[in-house]
Design goal:
This protein is mainly alpha-helical. The protein has helices at 6-23, 26-41, 56-63, 68-83, 89-98, 102-112, 120-133, 135-142. It is built from eight helices and no strands.
C-alpha cells in the first residue's frame, strides 16, 4: 500500500517496525526497494533524497543503487551525519518521537532531512528501522566497522 498521507505512512511505519523487531531488517529493505522503484517511476531522482550539503560521492553512489539494502547502506550515512550529531535538533525530535512510535518519526525525518513529501513512502522503512533499533542503537550500529 502506498501511503497518501502522513497518517497513512505512520500506520505503515508502526506495523513495519514491529515486523523488523520480530524478523530483522530484511522486511524494511524489501519495502524500501519497492518505495524507491515507485519514487523513480513517479519521475523523481534518487539523488533528490539527499539533503543539501551531502557528499557528492554519496549522490553518485545513490544513482546506481539497485536494492533497498544497498540504498540503506549508502543512505544510513546521510541519516547518521544528521541524526547522530550530539544534541542535534533531529536527534532530540527523534528521541521524543520514538517515545510515541515509528509513525511519529515519519514527519520528523521528512522535515529534518529536508525531503520532498513525494518521498513519504521511502521514509516509512527508514523510520521503521530507526524505531526498531532506537536512535542511540542506530547511531552505534551505523558506525560499526569505522575506525
Amino acid at each position: 500500500m502506498e501511503p497518501r498521507t502522513v497518517s497513512d505512512a505512520a500506520v505503515l511505519a508502526d506495523a513495519l517496525a514491529e515486523k523488523v523487531r520480530r524478523e530483522g531488517e530484511e522486511p524494511a529493505f524489501a519495502t524500501l526497494e519497492s518505495a524507491l522503484h515507485a519514487f523513480d517511476a513517479q519521475g523523481y531522482s534518487i539523488e533528490s533524497l539527499l539533503p543539501s550539503g551531502a557528499d557528492a560521492r554519496l549522490g553518485a553512489a545513490l544513482a546506481v543503487v539497485k536494492s533497498g539494502k544497498s540504498f540503506w547502506s549508502a543512505y544510513s550515512e546521510v541519516i547518521r551525519e544528521t541524526l547522530c550529531k550530539k544534541d542535534s535538533e533531529l536527534q532530540k525530535l527523534s528521541k521524543a518521537g520514538l517515545s510515541g512510535s515509528a509513525g511519529a518519526l515519519v514527519p520528523i525525518l521528512l522535515t529534518g532531512l529536508g525531503l520532498p513529501v513525494a518521498a513519504i513512502s521511502v521514509v516509512v522503512p527508514i523510520a521503521a528501522i530507526i524505531a526498531a533499533l532506537g536512535v542511540d542503537a542506530f547511531c552505534r550500529w551505523s558506525t560499526q566497522g569505522e575506525t
